[in-house]
């Protein structure tokens, strides 16, 4: 088993590709895995927090104010700017506009620390932004939902955010406690094994998230192509724009973390919180959105490793 985990660690980005392919070509498996998403996400968070450990997490608390500022910019300033643009152009009810606003209003995907790790950087800054951004969601979502009534009611969103925060804090606390009392220091081989387990967990999760892709390809390929282009444009566009602004201003690991999260948001959070008339047209977009998300370490890894000269 250890040899398999080490192999997965060496080929972590390939594991993501295999997960994407399985999600595309094994729709039955994707449908079967989808109900297990909450447990899989909690396990992924546990692995990530366990790898980082409480010592490294506490060492980064001095950056808490900057982390909070970035979370507010990502989850409040950007979506409000998008709402203003949509209202000014009369596109507030367009499915693509609603998808963009929901994406920007959402906190980071829970896999962001793992994407940072697979891009060759410390995952701790991304984990801090995952936790803090989720905690701030009740505050940041309120103005966005009040200014764009097409999104539906706010109360279910706050409930979903509370549940997600509870999962994040519970998994992180359990991992930190285990590290603190049983494994205060990890050997290099143990760290490699954890990286392999994380890569495998990410690959399994993406299979579940892509359950809507295969039916869309069979029934409406042109619509699928439209949403695929939109997903790549929004995801990679915000990542590249953020990194171009932050690469020379922030420490590299923080710049990478913020940039990854700028484009990779937990829009699926709203599936359980908003009315079906809002979310049903977005299911294909959410499925397409997983592809640039999981290709981030592969297609943007070179950018994040080299930076701007």
Structure write-up:
Helices cover 78% and strands 0% of the residues. It contains 16 helices and no strands. It has helices at residues 2-10, 12-25, 27-33, 37-59, 64-89, 95-105, 112-118, 124-147, 155-181, 188-209, 213-219, 221-246, 252-263, 276-279, 283-299, 301-306. Helix 2 (12-25) runs antiparallel to helix 15 and helix 8 packs parallel to helix 13 (252-263). It has one domain (2-306): Na+/H+ antiporter like fold, CATH 1.20.1530. The protein has 309 residues and is an all-alpha fold. InterPro entries: Na+/solute_symporter_sf.
| Mean pLDDT across residues | 84
Number of helices: 16
Query: Biggest sheet, in brief?
Result: none
CATH fold-level topology: Na+/H+ antiporter like fold
Q: In percent terms, what proportion of residues is strand? A: under 5%
Helix content: over 70%
Shape: globular
Key traits:
single chain, about 300 residues, about 0% strand
Q: In terms of topology, how is this protein built?
A:
Blueprint: H1 2-10, H2 12-25, H3 27-33, H4 37-59, H5 64-89, H6 95-105, H7 112-118, H8 124-147, H9 155-181, H10 188-209, H11 213-219, H12 221-246, H13 252-263, H14 276-279, H15 283-299, H16 301-306
Helix pairs in contact: 1-10, 2-10, 2-15, 3-10, 4-8, 4-9, 4-10, 5-6, 5-8, 7-13, 8-9, 8-13, 11-12, 12-13, 12-15
Can you describe this structure in just a few lines?
The chain crosses the membrane at residues 40-58, 70-92, 98-117, 129-148, 160-178, 199-218, 224-243, 255-276, 282-304. The chain is mainly alpha-helical. It has one domain: Up-down Bundle (Na+/H+ antiporter like fold).
